[in-house]
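Cross-posted from the bioinformatics board.
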Amino acid sequence: MSVQFSSEARKEFDELLAHYPYKEPALLPVLHLAQREFGHLSLEVLKYVADLLELPPARVAGVATFYPMYHFKPVGKYLLHVCATLSCALLGAEGVVDYLQEKLGVKAGETTPDGRFTILKVECVASCGTAPVLMLNETLIHRITKEKLDDILADPEAYVTKKKS
Amino acid sequence: MPTFTIDGKEIEIDPALGNLIRHGTKHGIHIPHYCFHPGLSAPGNCRMCMVEVESDTPAGRRKALTTACTTRPAPGMAVDTQSKLVKDTQKAVMEFLLINHPLDCPVCDQAGECDLQDFSYKYGSGDSRFQEAKVVQPKKDIGEHILLYADRCIRCTRCIRFCDEVSGTSELGYFYRGVYNEIDVFPGVRLDNRLSGNTVDICPVGALLDKAFLFKQRVWFLDGVESVCPGCSAGCNVRADVNRDNNRVYRLKPRENAEVNQFWMCDDGRHGWRYVHADNRLTAPMLRSGEGWAAAAWEEALGQVRQGFEGVRAGGGAVAGVLSGHLTNEENYLFARLMKEVVGSEKVGLRTRVSEEGDVKFKGGFTIRADKSPNSRGARDMAAAVGLTLTEMPDLLRQIEGGTVQGLYLLGGDPAEGLTEAERSAFGRLKFLVVQDILTSGLAPVAHVLLPGAAFVEKEGTFTNCAGRVQRLCRAFPPPGEAKADWEIVRDVAGALGGRLDFASAREVMEEVAQKAPGYAGVTYEALGSAGMTVSS
Amino acid sequence: MPEHRIILKDVDVPNIQDIEVYIANGGYRAAEKALKTMTPDEVIKEVQDSGLAGRGGAWFPTGTKWSFMPKEPKVPSYLCVNADESEPGTFKDRQLIEKNPHQLVEGTIIAAYAIRARAAYIYVRGEMAEGMRGLDRAIAQAYAKGYVGRNLFGKGYDLDLYTHPGAGAYICGEETGLMQSLEGKRAEPRVKPPFPAQRGIFGCPTTVNNVQTLSYVPHIVNNGAAWFKGIGNPKYPGTFIFCISGHVRNPGLFEMELGAATMRQLIYDYAGGIRDGRELKAVIPGGASTLPMKPDQIDIVMSPDQFLLPGRGPFKGMFGTGGIIVMDETACAVDMLLNLMQFFAHESCGQCTPCREGAPWVRDVVKRIEHGQGRPGDIDLLLNVADNVAGLLSPRYSTICLFGPAFSYPTQGTILAFREEFEEHIRQGRCPIRKDKGIR
C-alpha cells in the first residue's frame, strides 16, 4: 500500500481510536485526518482508511460521500466556501459567487488551473448575523463586500493564518 | 390468548411472527411493502406499508399512521389497512416512487413480477403529475452474475442489507445523499460472493438483474415447478421456471423453507443446472461400436445388458453395482433391490462427490455443503432399507483390479462427473460395464452400454438432505429423446434380467420405502407436501 | 427592551475561554456543588423543578428527559451534546461554543453526572473546526484541573469528555441522525421506537441535549430551581437567545425572557428596523421550517405558546429555534421558498421515499415558477405534494423523521401566506419583484 499515515498522523489516529469503544465510530474524524494528510480522499485513501478501521470499503466510501466536507478529487489550496442559504442569499451571496467566478475564471465547484482557489457553494454556516459570509478553509470571514473579496484573493494566507479576519 | 384486530378481524398474537405485516400475511391480509423482507432487518424506509394503528398509550387510546413493518401487535390493538388516510398515503408513496423511475416496463425483465407494477395497479392513482426532469442513474455491471440498472432502483436497500446480514460480505454500499443517492460497489470490489444471485430475487423492481436471464424470457410464459436443488447435500428448496412450449428451464429460484434454506440459494446451484439442456445429453441407449458408439432401441440395449451380465457370470466373475448420491431415493431403493434380489449380488458401492473446500458458511447461517451430491444420505438409507451393507469404493475397485468383479452396473447422474484415475484404470479392466447417466461425457468413455437417464426436473422422486430431511422433486417435462426416469430404467433392467420390480410410479416406490426403511415411516408424497419432512436414521 | 443575559452574560469577558479566568468568574462552582453535594437524582429534580425545556426546538422538559435514563446502568450510558447548529437563521450556539466554551463544558459535566453517563460526546458541526479546537482546549484544561476524568471531586464518578466532528450534514442536528453519525455511519435518522434513552449510541442508553440548554445548567445549580422558574413565562421559564438576520439594520443575538417582547419590538426596537428605509414584507420566526409571517402578524408575543398550527392549536414547533429572518419588499416569496427548498433538497438524507422524492420535486416546481415557467396547476400541485409528505392542515404524515414537515410546512405556509405572489409569477411568466440581492 503506497498510501500511509505519517507518524504524527498515526499518533493522532491512535488517540482518536481511544475515544470510542470500537473502531467504526472513529470514521468521520479519521476521514478528516486523512483528508488533511493526503489533500483529498482518493479511492486509495478510502481503501486505506477502510483497512485501518477494519470496515468494508463500500461502507467507508458510502459514508464519506454522504458528507459534503469530504473531497474525492484534488481541490485548491484555498477553499472559498460561500454560504448560499437564505440570510446570506438575501444579502448578496449570489453576487459573491458571481464575483468570484468572474475574478477567478472558474465556476462554482471548480478549481483554478494554478491549483490555488476552489469556489464552493455551501449551506448555512451559522453566522447569519454577519451575512453574507465566506469561509476560507477554516476561517470565517464576515460581511463580505467586493473590497473584502479583492483583499482575500490577493492575500488569502493572511486570512488563513488569522492575521486578518 | 392475546389478540388484536386487523380490519376488524381478530388475530392471535404470535411473537415468532414479529410485525403486523407477517401477522397479516398469515391471515390473508396483504399489506403492501418494499423494504421489509422477512429474512432481513426492517428499516421502515419505503413508507409503503403505513397503516392506521389504534392502541393504548400512556396518554390514553391513540390512533396514528405508522409503518406495519416496524410495529409489533399488542393486545387490544386495532389496525386499519383500508381507511382513507391509509389509501391516500399509499397513492402518495406510489406517486413518489414513480416520479424518478423510468418507464421501462416494455424492456424490463421484472415486468410481470414487479412490485412497483403490482402495487401501482392496486394502490396507486394511475396518473403521474410529475413534469420535471427525472434523475437518471447509469447501468452498472457490478458482479459476475449481476447487473444494476440503477435508474430503476427504489432505494429499498434490501440488497445492501442482504450483503451485510446474510452473506456478510458487504460489497454493496449506499453512496451520496438525497435523491442523488445510489447503490453501488466500491471500484475493484465487485459483488462476487457465492450468494449474489439472491439480491436479484429480493430486488422488488428490475434494478438488480441476473445476466444469464437478461432479456431471455417473459415471466408470464413460465410455470414454476417445485423441486430441490441437486447441487449439494443442503437440499435448498427451489422452483424451476419452465416454458411449457419448448420444455426448457429458464431459471432456478429459491423457495422459502425455514428448516432448510430460509429464502436463499447459492450461485453454484442457481447457475449450475444448464446441463439439463446441454448438447451432450444422452438421448438414446448407446452401445459400444468399435471406437465409437451407436444408438440402439431400448429392447436391444436391455438385451445387451442381460447378455453382458450372463457373460460375466459364465466366466466365473461377479457383477457389482454402484449407487449414486445424485439419484433419488426411489431410484437408489429400486437399484438396491435389483442388485440383491435380481442380480443376486451384495457387492454394492456408493459414489458421491465431496469437494475439498469443505462446508462454506456465511454470516447469517446459510451453508454451502462440501458434499456436492444431493442424496448421499438417502442413498445410504435406501441401501440399509434393503439390508445391503455397502462396499467401500476403494475395496470395490480392488476387487475389480483383482479380477473378482468383472461386471458393473454404475449409476451416475452427476453433471460434473469425472472418473478418478483409480476408477478409470479399474473400470478399463471390466469385462462388461453398464453406465446409466445423463451426459455423454464423464463416465461414458469406458462403458459398454450407456443408458440415458433423467435430470432432476424430468422425473418425480425425493432427495434426503444432510440433515435427514426428505423433500420432493416434481417433474416439469419428460427427459429428451428416448431418455427415461432412472427408476423406470432400473425397473426395466430388472425385467430384462428375469426379475420383477413392479411399480407404476415413483410415488408407489416411496410407499414401499416408507414401510421398509426404518426412519421413513409415514413418508408419502402428500405428507411431504412442498416443505418435506425429517426422517430419523 | 429587556435583554436579560444569563448564558450570554460572560461572552465578552476577556479570555473567559481560559479556565483560570472562567473560575475567577465563578466557574465550575456548580459542577463542584452538583457532584460533591447532590446525588444524580437530586440534580435531575432540580432541573425538573426549574422548568428548563430543550432549546433545540422541541421544548421537551430537560429534567424529565434525563429521568428516562437508567438509574443503575448495566451498560454504559452516554450524553451527546448537539453542537451541530445548522438551522438557517440560527447562529447562537456558535457564540456559546466559541466565546464561552467552559460554560458548556461545565453544563455537560453536570448533565452527564445526572444521567450517570460514562462519557459525553460534543458533536460539533464540521464547519466549526475552530470552535471545536477551542472546546478541545477547554476540555484539556478541565481534565488538568480534575473536573473531567477519574474520581471527580473524590466522589468516585468517572467521566470522559470528547468532541466529535461532523462533516457538513444538516440532518445531524436530528438526534437520531446525530447518533448515526457519531457511530461512523451515514446520518440517516432512525425509526422510533426504540428511543435514545433505551438504545442510543453503541446500543446504549443515551441522552441528546442542545448546547443552549446545557449552558443554563450551571446557573440553575448555582442559583436554584426556584430562581430559574421565576424568570419570565411560567410555562417556559428562563431566557432564550433570539437570532435576527436578513434585511434589518442591526442583525445579531438577543437573549431575553420568553414573552417579554413581541416580534415587532425585536425587529424595530432591537434590530433597528428595516434597512435602507424599506418596508417589511415577511418574517420567518424561528428557522427555515417555521411558517413565514406577514406584517399584520408581527404583534405576536415571542413565546412558544403563542404560536399555533393552523386549525390545530398551539404547536411550539412553529416557534422554532429562534432564528428570525426578516425580509423587506425586495424579497420575493417564491424566491425565498426556492432558496429554502434548494437547501432542503440538498440536505435530505434520501432514506425514505416521500422526502427523497418530494423535496426535489417541490424545489423543481418552485424553480420553474420563479423562472417564469410556472403553469396554472402548479400551486395546487405544490400544496398537495407537500401535504402528501406531511400535512399542515391535515393529519397526513409519511416520513421517518421531522425533516418531512421541516420542508413541507414552510412550502404550504409560504403558499398560504403569499398565494397571490405565486399566481402573479405564473400569470406574468416572470418574477415581478424588484430584488436587491447584489453584492455590496
